[in-house]
Amino acid sequence: MNLGISALNYVNSIKNGDFTVEEFIEKSFERIKKVDDKLHAFLSFNDIALEKAKGIDRRISSNQKIGQCFGMPISVKDNMCVEGTKTTCASKVLENFISPYTGTAVSRLETEDAIIIGKTNLDEFAMGLSTEFSAYGSSKNPWNVDYVPGGSSGGSAVSVSANECIASLGSDTGGSIRNPASFCSIVGLKPTYGLVSRFGLVSYANSLEQIGPMTKTVEDSAFLLNIISGIDHNDNTTIDNKNQDYLKDIDAGIAGKKIGVVTEMTNPNGLSTSVLNATNDAIKKFEDLGANCEQVSLGMSKYAVAAYYTITSTEAGSNLARYDNIRYGYEFDSSGFEFNSYISQARSKLGPEVIRRMILGGFVPSAGHAGKYFLKALKVKSKLITEINNIFKKFDYLISPTVPIQPFKFGEKINDPVSFMLVDFNTVTANLTGIPAISVPFKIEDGLPIGIQIMANHMDEHSLLQAAYALEKTVSLPEVEI
Ligand code: GLN
Hints:
Radius of gyration: 21 Å
Distance between the termini: 17 Å
Number of strands: 11
Low-confidence stretches: none
Mean pLDDT: 96
CATH superfamily of the domain at 7-251 and 464-472: Amidase signature (AS) domain
Bound molecules: glutamine
CATH architecture of the domain at 7-251 and 464-472: Alpha-Beta Complex
Strand order of the largest sheet: 1-3-2-4-6-5-10-11-9-7-8
Order of helices and strands: HHEHEHEHEHEEHEHEHHHHEHHEEH
CATH topology of the domain at 7-251 and 464-472: Amidase signature (AS) enzymes
Structural class: alpha/beta
Helix content: 25-40%
Strand content: 5-15%
């Protein structure tokens, strides 16, 4: 049995009777047992996964109706609620928090008979890009365990890339699906803001974040998006996509399409040589596919990282204020504390990155400073949106490398916050403007992956996935060996 098969091939194999759901789930747990000590993709497991598998097998053998996922094992980033299971956000503050309900994206998968096999590691509250800020230890890159897997949805990317499960759900506020997808050589899609419900996602910076699929193939990404997208009355930001079928005509190709190569995101000074070379190869491939590539400047993207961290810290400062150990939290004896010392004590289990964001988030929108920082950041955001809208009048897609550099070693960047934040240079623009963006595995160089990012206009996921599919078909990459 090949645990590395795609979601669509899994469905065909189950329909053919090549193996049962129970056999596949059992083998997946064996695989996890073998590799996860080394990789640490998971924070917890679903105790009733095997029982669920047996139930689905029973329904298959008695010819009952089965959901589209046919029991495939899917992992979920541990900042999404699944009823009755722990949701820690990789924070000590939520160490024992049990979700009282299941979020919409997860419940839509479960309705289609996906089996949530476990919850995956992340940077604490999704703040970071390497999983080095998880309070439970980092996940490791399966291509080379000395290197970071990217983040913040690092555990999700590792679990898919190391064949511990078929697919995963991640969340992306500024790159957290695409960055680890690129670092681990899988496909990661950040949908249009509002296309996927965030009900049940623990908020970090809710004006920017989206849940999206992390998969082995572009077709799998479309398959999962079909299931999780669309209007949800529990999230008023959701958009009605009229049940669009993203798999339909996915192989239509991109002949005659106009692609903008974003000048600021492909600047040789900002990219490593290997990433620059891969980007030039990708441009050539797009042209061979019949598209016309042209340089295009997105001037405001120079300020995007600064605006992004100003806005996200502000939202995080207010979102994380709820961890006061009254409504959520851990046990401690509060007798003898007055209000301020109680709050300090309650927050003392938050990690250094979260604290940094909360301090920044208290300062940048405060009276006397808001005009210089928060309001300026919002201006950058709205100018970026105007620029993007104008660009998409002329272009069908924008491309860049997903991340300007390849995976780095543990500890290499963590003490240099500015160079750390600049790793997000190419990803944050899609969040600030709300457009969809996907990372497609493109190359393995020196044993480590490089992904290419494609962006499209609002709600153009269908055509975005067609471009991603076309690019994917031009490359043949090795399987990870672990
Ligand atoms: N690295 C970015 C941050 O730390 C992105 C994180 C994310 O997308 N959740 O905010």
